[in-house]
Write a structure and sequence with these properties.
- The chain folds into two domains: 7-89, no CATH class; 111-247, no CATH class.
- Helix content is 23%, strand content 11%.
- A hairpin with an 8-residue loop joins β6 (196-197) and β7.
- It is globular.
- It has helices spanning 48-57, 71-75, 111-116, 129-132, 139-142, 162-167, 210-228, 242-245, and strands at residues 7-10, 20-25, 28-32, 96-98, 106-109, 196-197, 206-207, 246-247.
- One heme C (HEC) binds next to α7.
Length: 251
């Protein structure tokens, strides 16, 4: 693992924490989480791709490990002399900024809190990864929760858990929702078209865009939380409380 920079790459999310965030570098975002006096991180405006290759080529890094690989890095992996099995330290992101393109404002989602705290509707247990990442389980499991049937990849045999992600380097990558639930009028990355479902009480199938998928997933649970636990303060943002989730960032 020596000679590898410690760089977390995710396909389109940003994590926070002690993170240093660079956005929009060739569709990938780079989250760099460690800085020491001898290994300073690049500053805003740095061309990250050159920075990485320079740093690596100059062998400045000895204690950093390469954690995630994007296609981008895979293509330059030949220059980077490091062990891809270093993927074993994969952790779910702490905080994710969603809805970056929404006119109403972006949504700050505390991913880790939703995993580690008792955030089921009744507040008695944590939320299973697959309650949100519903395609990250074997097809036979998904079918137990109609209307779900699609899984990714189609022949997967494992169910996403924090442990699987951390310990099994062969586990399939976690797909982000928008890989399938793309924005209206756009083609999703993984499917020929945005999935559609006919919901009870409606004649027409609903196109499960990002907006539909997130509002149904996030909003439905929050509505159930408020029903089950009316005294919870502050209450989670329910479906109608648009700007409890969407916040304009001060310019
Ligand atoms: C309450 C819903 C919810 C739960 C529960 C949840 N996640 Fe997530 N997760 C998300 C959302 C939303 C994203 C960001 C998707 C996007 O950017 O479109 C995400 C992103 C991720 C990513 C980053 C994927 C990428 O390439 O950017 C990983 C890894 C991940 N989750 C792992 C897990 C694991 C492991 C668990 C269970 C321990 C879990 N998640 C539980 C909603 C959830
Ligand atoms: C690999 C593609 C894919 C990914 C990734 C994916 N979905 Fe879906 N989603 C689908 C498909 C297809 C359906 C329609 C039902 C089916 O075929 O399983 C669906 C249905 C849904 C539904 C409607 C069904 C219901 O339970 O009400 C919601 C909500 C939803 N997805 C939310 C999400 C969220 C949130 C994420 C990310 C955490 C996500 N999906 C990731 C493909 C995907
Ligand atoms: C299965 C249930 C469940 C799902 C699914 C869920 N949440 Fe939550 N969420 C909760 C609960 C419970 C709380 C309140 C926790 C508390 O205050 O004790 C909460 C709180 C929040 C809060 C306010 C507090 C905080 O964490 O900052 C935001 C914002 C939020 N959720 C966003 C989201 C988004 C965005 C999604 C979808 C990607 C989502 N949630 C999906 C259960 C859920
Ligand atoms: C529980 C949190 C939450 C609440 C409440 C909520 N939203 Fe959203 N909204 C989201 C998330 C998360 C996304 C999709 C994120 C993504 O694609 O990254 C989204 C997406 C959208 C989009 C699509 C943005 C785009 O162009 O891609 C619109 C429009 C929107 N919301 C409007 C609303 C309105 C109007 C309300 C109130 C009726 C509302 N939202 C309530 C979390 C929320």
């Amino acid at each position: 693992m020596e000679g590898c920079p410690k760089i977390y790459l995710t396909s389109n999310t940003i994590a926070r924490g002690s993170g240093w965030v660079v956005t929009e570098a060739l569709n990938a975002e780079f989250i760099i989480q460690e800085e020491t006096a001898t290994h300073p991180l690049p500053r805003a405006g740095t061309d990250l791709i050159s920075w990485i290759s320079e740093e690596v080529n100059m062998k400045l890094f000895t204690l950093f490990a390469l954690i995630g690989l994007s296609l981008l890095l895979l293509s330059s992996a030949s220059q980077i002399n490091c062990d891809v099995s270093a993927q074993d330290a994969k952790k779910p992101p702490e905080t994710i900024i969603l809805a970056k393109e929404s006119k109403l404002g972006q949504v700050t989602f505390h991913h880790l809190d939703h995993i580690t705290k008792n955030r089921s509707a009744d507040g008695t247990k944590p939320i299973a990864c697959v309650e949100c990442h519903h395609t990250a389980q074997p097809a036979a499991e998904a079918l137990k929760h109609p209307p779900h049937k699609t899984v990714w990849p189609a022949d997967r045999t494992t169910t996403l858990t924090a442990e699987l992600l951390e310990k099994d380097p062969t586990a399939p990558a976690v797909n982000i929702c928008t890989d399938c639930h793309a924005r209206a009028e756009t083609k999703p990355k993984l499917l020929p078209e945005i999935p559609k479902l006919k919901f009870e009480g409606s004649d027409e199938p609903t196109i499960l865009t990002n907006q539909q998928a997130f509002h149904r997933n996030c909003g439905a649970c929050h509505d159930a939380v408020v029903k089950a636990r009316p005294d919870l303060t502050p209450p989670p943002p329910t479906s109608k409380k648009c700007v409890a989730c969407h916040k304009k960032i001060a310019a």
